[in-house]
Structure formats: structure tokens, C-alpha cells
Amino acid sequence: MKYNFDKIPNRRGTTQIKWRVKENELPMWVADMDFETAPKVKEAIMNTAKLGVYGYNDTNEEFYDAYVTHWNTKHHTSLTKDNLIYVTGVIAALDIILKYIPSKNDNVILLTPVYNAFFNCIKNNELNVLESHLSYKDYKYEIDFKDLEEKLSYKNSTALILCNPHNPIGKIWSREDISRVIELCKKYDVLLISDEIHCDIVSPNKEYNAIFSFNNIDERNTIALVSPSKIFGLAGLHTACIMIKDRDRKEYLEKQVYKDDVGEANSFAVSASIACYRDSEDWIDEVNKYIESNRLLVKSYLEEHIKELKLIDGDATYLLWIDISKTTLKSELFAAKLREETGLFILPGKKYGEIGDNFIRVNIATSKDNVIDALHRLDKFVKSLN
Predict the structure, then answer these.
(1) Which among 143, 235, 243, 239 has a CA at the least distance from the CA of 196?
(2) Which domain covers residue 233, as residue numbers?
(3) Which of 208, 209, 247, 369 sits 20 to 30 Å CA-CA off 175?
């Protein structure tokens, strides 16, 4: 490989949340990569730092060109810079969008199990979470379209948040699935919000299906949320974009973004984002190969040594969704005891909805040595249950 992902920076003793753990603990919980970011991104940040002055910042033509070129070339969209709004984060953007919904107590539909922050964002805006459970059979997930349509048809169902690719199950939704979701949202005049923050983290030779690559979308009622933060490990830089084609809704959201003070870039966000999407395509390919090798390592180890656990096959994100139903524990107790007894810190599936209570989520965007260490700790713990 051109880049060395086996060597990761030592973040213990820093203010970075993931590694603020005890000395014996191995954190594989929050969706935060341990790899150094791409060299060109690091170089851009260092060059900005050398200025020695970190004043107010704004986006520029290069910033929007980098986004547009990446999505149009790699993800088959037809976006222009006029379709983008800079924002400090995907969840900040989602919060702004949900404030757009005038009728409080309306339903926002989630396909669960799904990213836990969605629940909080909906509730904080005084809206109702309406779950459409994904169908789970033979260790595979599918959208239950009958249930989804029923819930979209409710008079007070206003929005659907699609996680694309899906966190935590690591699934790339097919073009057929997304097209059906689009048509149902159009049928019932429901706002479709597609969170695509994990879009570039896919297995080799796989590709996610960007919502704006579909010709049948309702431009008035379709929004995508994107950011380089997951694939490049830049969560601390607070940089993201809202993608939207409807001019009236865009103008409203731009006003809300600035009203809520989440539309101003920090000193490093713009130059780093440009380096991500303009100069680092080869790094994306390489890091995905490494993540895939970690995924296959976990899969083979569980099949050979920890048969009580089953990895759900996924082709996106660096988050593994593991079925623990054959053990005697539900997810919260499993995760708590695992951390207490072995120091391995992962997340319980219940965080992603009640339907996730027989699962755990594990972040494998770390060195192979850490993955092996985690597997040994997990093996020891599961054997102790027996």
C-alpha cells in the first residue's frame, strides 16, 4: 500500500473524545477513525496554520468546485455550486431542516435500527419519531416497504430521514430500493432527507447511490447531507454541506443556517475540504482497502473462534453490526460487562432503537493490531459467559 495505516497516532492524554479512556481500555465505539488523514489534507491544514492568524473565514469557488467535481464525477450527480450550502456539520444541518417543519408533533420517519443522533434531533424539535423497522431475516436487512408506505401515508407524516449508506448495519441501499423510497415520498408529499456522510466509505468495487443521481426525485422535497468528516477523520474541523436543488427552500435554509450561527467556516475547514475532494482520491481507495481487510479479519475470526456472534455482512462504513442474540445478554449489559471485564469499549445496539437490542456496534477504522487485540478480548469475554 502507498499509505501506512498500520501506524496510528497516539491520542491518549489528548482532549479527543474517543481516546479519553483508561490506560487498559481499547475504544472502538464512536465513529471516529484512528488513521492520520490524507497527506494532502494534512499539508493544507499545516499551510493554513503557518499563517499565524486565524480570523473570520468564508467559503470560495475552489471549495464548491471540489464538492461539485467529486459528486458529479464519482457519484454521477449533476450538481452545481448553487445547490450547496456550507454548514458546520450534518447534525447541525439536520436540526436546521427539521426547524423548517412548521407543525410541531408531526412525524419524522426513521428506518430503524439507525444512527442514534437522529432520535435526539427529532425530539429536540418537538417532532415525533415514527419508526419503520427494517426487516431482519437470515442475518440480512431489507426495507419493509409495506410498513414504510403505511407510515408515510399518515396525515401528519412530514419527513423521512434516509441513512445512505446505512449506519449501523453498513448497507448500501440499491438503486431499486432508493427509487421506491423516492416514489413513496413523492406519493405522500413527504420531505426526503438523505444523510450521506458515510458515502465514500465503501468496500472495493462497490459504490453508494447518491440521492441526487436519481432522475425521479422531487427536487422541491429532496435534501442530501454530506461531509468529508467520516472518510478523512475530520470531525473536529466541523465542515459539511447541505445539497438542495429547490431555490425557495435553499434560500430559507441559508437564512436559518446564518440565524443559528452554523454557517461560518473555521480557519481550516475550507482548505482541508478542498484537499479532500480535489487531491486525495487515491487515499480514499487505499483506506477503503484497509478497512475491508479489517472487516474480513473480523468475519473470519468470529466464524472460527466466536460462533455465538454473527457479523452482519456490510459493504459500507467502518462500523460493524454484530448479532449477539445467541449469548445470554442484551446489548447494554453485554457492552457494559465487556468494557468492565476486558476494557473493550463498544456501543450497545439499543442506542439505535429498541430493535437493535440484540446487537453491538464496533468501529474497525483502526490499526490491524488493535482489531486483533479487540477480537482476543471479545473472545475471552464470550467464553467467560459459557
Answers:
(1) 243
(2) 44-279
(3) 247
